[in-house]
Amino acid sequence: MGKARPVRILIVDDHALFRKGVASLIKPMGAMQVVGEASSGEEALAKAIALRPDVILMDIHMPDMDGIEATRRIKADLPDVQVVILTMSDEDEHLFEAIKSGAQGYLLKGIDPDEFLRRLEGLGRGEAPISRLSAARLLEEFSRSSDAPTEVQAPTAGDVLTPREVQVLGLVAEGATNRAIATDLAISENTVKNHLSHILAKLHLRSRTEAAAYAVRERLLDAAEDKD
Protein backbone atom coordinates (compact mmCIF):
# COMPACT_ATOMS: atom_id res chain seq x y z
CA MET A 1 0.00 0.00 0.00
CA GLY A 2 1.39 3.41 -0.99
CA LYS A 3 2.08 6.22 1.41
CA ALA A 4 -0.89 8.52 2.05
CA ARG A 5 -0.79 11.88 0.31
CA PRO A 6 -0.02 14.72 2.74
CA VAL A 7 -2.73 17.23 3.57
CA ARG A 8 -2.18 20.25 1.31
CA ILE A 9 -2.35 23.57 3.16
CA LEU A 10 -2.70 27.17 1.95
CA ILE A 11 -1.74 29.90 4.47
CA VAL A 12 -3.55 33.24 4.12
CA ASP A 13 -2.35 36.22 6.16
CA ASP A 14 -1.21 39.75 5.30
CA HIS A 15 1.90 39.45 7.48
CA ALA A 16 4.71 37.58 5.73
CA LEU A 17 6.54 36.86 9.01
CA PHE A 18 3.47 35.14 10.45
CA ARG A 19 2.96 33.07 7.29
CA LYS A 20 6.56 31.91 7.37
CA GLY A 21 6.30 31.08 11.07
CA VAL A 22 3.23 28.90 10.55
CA ALA A 23 4.85 27.23 7.54
CA SER A 24 7.94 26.41 9.61
CA LEU A 25 5.73 24.74 12.25
CA ILE A 26 3.98 22.61 9.65
CA LYS A 27 7.05 21.68 7.59
CA PRO A 28 8.33 18.88 9.90
CA MET A 29 4.88 17.27 9.91
CA GLY A 30 5.08 14.57 7.26
CA ALA A 31 1.29 14.34 7.03
CA MET A 32 0.97 18.02 6.08
CA GLN A 33 2.44 20.14 3.30
CA VAL A 34 2.24 23.91 2.76
CA VAL A 35 1.53 24.34 -0.96
CA GLY A 36 1.10 28.11 -1.07
CA GLU A 37 0.68 31.45 0.68
CA ALA A 38 -1.56 34.47 0.08
CA SER A 39 -1.52 37.95 1.58
CA SER A 40 -5.11 39.07 0.89
CA GLY A 41 -8.60 37.72 0.45
CA GLU A 42 -8.50 38.27 -3.32
CA GLU A 43 -5.21 36.42 -3.61
CA ALA A 44 -6.55 33.64 -1.39
CA LEU A 45 -9.46 33.09 -3.76
CA ALA A 46 -7.16 32.93 -6.78
CA LYS A 47 -4.64 30.64 -5.05
CA ALA A 48 -7.38 28.33 -3.75
CA ILE A 49 -8.76 27.82 -7.25
CA ALA A 50 -5.29 27.33 -8.74
CA LEU A 51 -3.82 25.06 -6.04
CA ARG A 52 -6.90 23.17 -4.79
CA PRO A 53 -5.61 22.80 -1.20
CA ASP A 54 -7.26 20.50 1.33
CA VAL A 55 -7.08 23.06 4.13
CA ILE A 56 -6.87 26.87 4.17
CA LEU A 57 -5.62 28.72 7.26
CA MET A 58 -7.38 32.08 6.96
CA ASP A 59 -6.80 35.39 8.74
CA ILE A 60 -9.75 37.80 9.06
CA HIS A 61 -8.35 41.33 8.80
CA MET A 62 -6.68 41.68 5.39
CA PRO A 63 -6.65 44.19 2.52
CA ASP A 64 -8.96 43.98 -0.53
CA MET A 65 -11.25 41.34 0.98
CA ASP A 66 -11.51 40.13 4.57
CA GLY A 67 -11.13 36.48 5.50
CA ILE A 68 -14.82 35.91 6.18
CA GLU A 69 -15.89 37.09 2.73
CA ALA A 70 -12.99 35.16 1.18
CA THR A 71 -14.15 32.03 3.03
CA ARG A 72 -17.70 32.50 1.76
CA ARG A 73 -16.54 32.82 -1.86
CA ILE A 74 -14.04 29.98 -1.66
CA LYS A 75 -16.60 27.60 -0.15
CA ALA A 76 -19.04 28.51 -2.94
CA ASP A 77 -16.48 27.45 -5.57
CA LEU A 78 -14.72 24.70 -3.59
CA PRO A 79 -17.20 23.25 -1.08
CA ASP A 80 -14.87 20.40 -0.06
CA VAL A 81 -11.97 22.61 1.05
CA GLN A 82 -11.70 22.96 4.84
CA VAL A 83 -11.20 26.51 6.08
CA VAL A 84 -9.81 27.21 9.55
CA ILE A 85 -9.86 30.83 10.69
CA LEU A 86 -6.57 31.74 12.40
CA THR A 87 -6.86 35.24 13.82
CA MET A 88 -6.23 37.66 16.67
CA SER A 89 -9.93 38.54 16.82
CA ASP A 90 -11.80 37.13 19.81
CA GLU A 91 -15.02 38.99 18.94
CA ASP A 92 -18.23 36.97 18.97
CA GLU A 93 -19.42 38.60 15.75
CA HIS A 94 -16.37 37.38 13.83
CA LEU A 95 -16.65 33.90 15.32
CA PHE A 96 -20.33 33.55 14.42
CA GLU A 97 -19.93 34.98 10.92
CA ALA A 98 -16.91 32.79 10.18
CA ILE A 99 -18.80 29.59 10.99
CA LYS A 100 -21.88 30.77 9.09
CA SER A 101 -19.66 31.48 6.07
CA GLY A 102 -18.56 27.84 6.02
CA ALA A 103 -15.38 27.73 8.13
CA GLN A 104 -14.73 24.40 9.86
CA GLY A 105 -12.73 25.90 12.71
CA TYR A 106 -11.73 29.07 14.52
CA LEU A 107 -8.41 29.40 16.36
CA LEU A 108 -6.69 32.38 17.96
CA LYS A 109 -3.10 33.22 17.06
CA GLY A 110 -2.08 33.00 20.70
CA ILE A 111 -2.64 29.24 20.67
CA ASP A 112 0.22 26.99 21.83
CA PRO A 113 2.11 25.64 18.77
CA ASP A 114 1.74 22.00 19.82
CA GLU A 115 -1.99 22.48 20.42
CA PHE A 116 -2.29 24.18 17.02
CA LEU A 117 -0.75 21.18 15.27
CA ARG A 118 -2.97 18.77 17.20
CA ARG A 119 -6.02 20.76 16.13
CA LEU A 120 -4.94 20.58 12.49
CA GLU A 121 -4.38 16.84 12.72
CA GLY A 122 -7.87 16.49 14.18
CA LEU A 123 -9.38 17.73 10.90
CA GLY A 124 -8.55 14.37 9.35
CA ARG A 125 -10.58 12.66 12.09
CA GLY A 126 -13.58 14.86 11.47
CA GLU A 127 -12.92 17.09 14.49
CA ALA A 128 -13.53 20.85 14.46
CA PRO A 129 -10.42 22.94 15.26
CA ILE A 130 -12.06 25.26 17.76
CA SER A 131 -11.38 26.04 21.41
CA ARG A 132 -13.85 24.85 24.04
CA LEU A 133 -14.58 28.48 24.95
CA SER A 134 -15.37 29.43 21.35
CA ALA A 135 -17.47 26.28 20.95
CA ALA A 136 -19.47 27.15 24.06
CA ARG A 137 -20.11 30.67 22.75
CA LEU A 138 -21.20 29.29 19.39
CA LEU A 139 -23.59 26.79 20.91
CA GLU A 140 -25.07 29.41 23.21
CA GLU A 141 -25.68 31.70 20.24
CA PHE A 142 -27.22 29.00 18.07
CA SER A 143 -29.41 27.60 20.86
CA ARG A 144 -30.93 30.94 21.87
CA SER A 145 -31.40 32.36 18.40
CA SER A 146 -34.66 31.68 16.63
CA ASP A 147 -32.92 32.84 13.46
CA ALA A 148 -30.21 30.16 13.55
CA PRO A 149 -28.69 29.22 10.16
CA THR A 150 -30.97 27.04 8.08
CA GLU A 151 -28.33 24.32 7.91
CA VAL A 152 -28.83 23.49 11.62
CA GLN A 153 -32.57 22.96 11.08
CA ALA A 154 -33.01 19.20 10.85
CA PRO A 155 -35.39 16.33 11.61
CA THR A 156 -35.98 15.41 15.24
CA ALA A 157 -33.10 13.27 16.52
CA GLY A 158 -35.37 10.68 18.12
CA ASP A 159 -37.06 10.05 14.81
CA VAL A 160 -33.96 9.22 12.79
CA LEU A 161 -30.99 8.49 15.09
CA THR A 162 -30.22 5.30 16.97
CA PRO A 163 -29.73 5.56 20.77
CA ARG A 164 -25.95 5.19 20.25
CA GLU A 165 -25.91 7.99 17.67
CA VAL A 166 -27.77 10.23 20.11
CA GLN A 167 -25.09 9.46 22.72
CA VAL A 168 -22.32 10.35 20.27
CA LEU A 169 -24.09 13.55 19.25
CA GLY A 170 -24.48 14.61 22.87
CA LEU A 171 -20.76 14.11 23.51
CA VAL A 172 -19.89 16.09 20.37
CA ALA A 173 -21.97 18.97 21.77
CA GLU A 174 -19.92 18.81 24.98
CA GLY A 175 -16.77 19.39 22.91
CA ALA A 176 -15.38 15.86 23.24
CA THR A 177 -12.81 14.66 20.71
CA ASN A 178 -13.27 11.42 18.79
CA ARG A 179 -10.74 9.74 21.09
CA ALA A 180 -12.58 10.91 24.21
CA ILE A 181 -15.92 9.74 22.80
CA ALA A 182 -14.41 6.35 21.95
CA THR A 183 -13.04 5.98 25.47
CA ASP A 184 -16.27 7.08 27.13
CA LEU A 185 -18.43 4.69 25.07
CA ALA A 186 -15.86 1.84 24.92
CA ILE A 187 -15.80 1.80 21.11
CA SER A 188 -13.09 2.44 18.50
CA GLU A 189 -12.32 5.84 16.98
CA ASN A 190 -13.27 4.45 13.57
CA THR A 191 -16.67 3.52 14.95
CA VAL A 192 -17.06 7.07 16.28
CA LYS A 193 -16.23 8.46 12.83
CA ASN A 194 -18.79 6.14 11.26
CA HIS A 195 -21.44 7.25 13.74
CA LEU A 196 -20.66 10.91 12.99
CA SER A 197 -20.95 10.32 9.24
CA HIS A 198 -24.33 8.66 9.73
CA ILE A 199 -25.50 11.47 12.04
CA LEU A 200 -24.59 14.19 9.53
CA ALA A 201 -26.24 12.30 6.68
CA LYS A 202 -29.44 11.55 8.59
CA LEU A 203 -29.85 15.09 9.93
CA HIS A 204 -28.79 16.77 6.66
CA LEU A 205 -25.95 18.61 8.39
CA ARG A 206 -22.55 19.49 6.96
CA SER A 207 -20.14 19.72 9.86
CA ARG A 208 -19.35 18.78 13.44
CA THR A 209 -20.10 22.35 14.55
CA GLU A 210 -23.58 22.24 13.00
CA ALA A 211 -24.18 18.88 14.68
CA ALA A 212 -23.18 20.31 18.07
CA ALA A 213 -25.45 23.33 17.57
CA TYR A 214 -28.30 21.02 16.62
CA ALA A 215 -27.77 18.93 19.76
CA VAL A 216 -28.05 22.04 21.93
CA ARG A 217 -31.18 23.24 20.12
CA GLU A 218 -32.80 19.82 20.60
CA ARG A 219 -31.79 19.84 24.30
CA LEU A 220 -30.01 16.50 23.96
CA LEU A 221 -27.61 17.46 26.74
CA ASP A 222 -30.51 18.24 29.09
CA ALA A 223 -32.09 14.91 28.25
CA ALA A 224 -28.85 13.06 28.97
CA GLU A 225 -28.52 14.80 32.35
CA ASP A 226 -32.11 13.91 33.26
CA LYS A 227 -31.29 10.22 32.69
CA ASP A 228 -28.24 10.30 34.97
Largest sheet: 5 strands, parallel
Distance between the termini: 46 Å
Estimate the strand proportion: 5-15%
SS summary, helix count: 12
Architecture overview:
- It is a single chain.
- The protein is α/β, with parallel strands linked by helices and 228 residues long.
- The chain has 12 helices and 5 strands.
- It has a 5-stranded parallel beta sheet, with helices on both faces.
- Helix 2 (41-51) packs parallel to helix 3, helix 8 (163-173) packs across helix 10 and helix 8 (163-173) packs across helix 11.
- Mean pLDDT is 82; it is low at 146-154 and 223-228.
Topology:
Elements: E1 7-12, H1 16-26, E2 32-38, H2 41-51, E3 55-58, H3 67-77, E4 82-87, H4 92-100, E5 105-108, H5 113-123, H6 132-144, H7 157-160, H8 163-173, H9 178-185, H10 189-203, H11 208-217, H12 220-227
Parallel strand pairs: 1-2, 1-3, 3-4, 4-5
Helix pairs in contact: 2-3, 6-11, 8-10, 8-11, 9-10
